[in-house]
User: What shape does this take?
Amino acid sequence: MRIVSVWDGGRKMAWKMVQSDPMDVLGVDLMLKVYESLDARSLASSLLVSRSWFSVASIDTLWSPLCTQLWVGKAHIPGWSKRSGLSKLASYSRAVIDSKRVHITREDLENHAWIFHFTEAAPAYWKNLDPYWRGAGPLMRRYFHPDGTVTSDPEDEVWGGHECSYTVVTSILLSNGKIKENYVRVNRWPRLIVSRREDWGWNMSNGIFAYSSIPDADKKSGTGPSF
Assistant: This one.
């Protein structure tokens, strides 16, 4: 904002407030210093001001540290936010979008190793074999494969070498295209209800046994569906 005088011929009539674009007044270098102090939400809001603001506020040097900050402590980093050639702004936006996704896909199942344990409602015999309840030994793991099978580690006492398969069931409302329900079924056991953790990990449970995805944020190409 600046003040200019209004003249009528040779006589000054009044003062007038004129709006000035900070980008023009401060210049790109100083605006970058301002942008560097903003959080992601404030920086994203500045993208909407004008084309000139967008061109500066969207550069990778601003969004790269924000991406790093966003991913700290996360169990999984979505693969579609780490595609080659993608801008850091797009990477950040896609990661946030994916973190709000609550429907699970086959890629989610296949890309992660899973901790498996029985719930409190399970028979005592099974819980007595489960390291989760015994409080000793490594927790059991399960692995979902692209061919629809599920396997365990060789030393797993509960597994017993039996055949195991899974399906992902997703129903969509034709009226608006929204997902009505989404669950996973292993063999003929009751359906596994899916939920998302704050660290972007996955939990699945049916009241008898439960799965939790094991953090793997160090995977270079990310995980999950490519959309």
Summary: Residues 1-7, 14-18 have pLDDT under 50 and may be disordered. The longest strand covers residues 11-18. The chain has nine helices and ten strands.
